[in-house]
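Hi R.,

Here's the input for the zinc ion complex you asked about:
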Amino acid sequence: MDCDEAIVRIYQYLDGELTVWRRRAISRHLDECPPCAHGFDFEVELRQVVASKCRDEVPPELKRRIAEAIGVTLEEERRRPQQF
Ligand SMILES: [Zn+2]
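And here is the predicted structure with zinc ion in place:
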């Protein structure tokens, strides 16, 4: 796995869309590649900050817009059945 592929996979990894084997391949790459590991740490941290800041005090609509802006799918959005 090269760095370009690793970056793409990291987002899928964080969204829980990868198989166990893909996750292992990414972990291996992150162990061997400090720049990608740093990027991964940053992404995880960013998501945690957003998750904690958005938990209670932010209106759901704003929360959704923030999540969209940074490319995160909110757990509750994902669980909610699509009814339009
Ligand atoms: Zn890399």
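One thing worth noting: The mean pLDDT is 81.

Cheers,
M.
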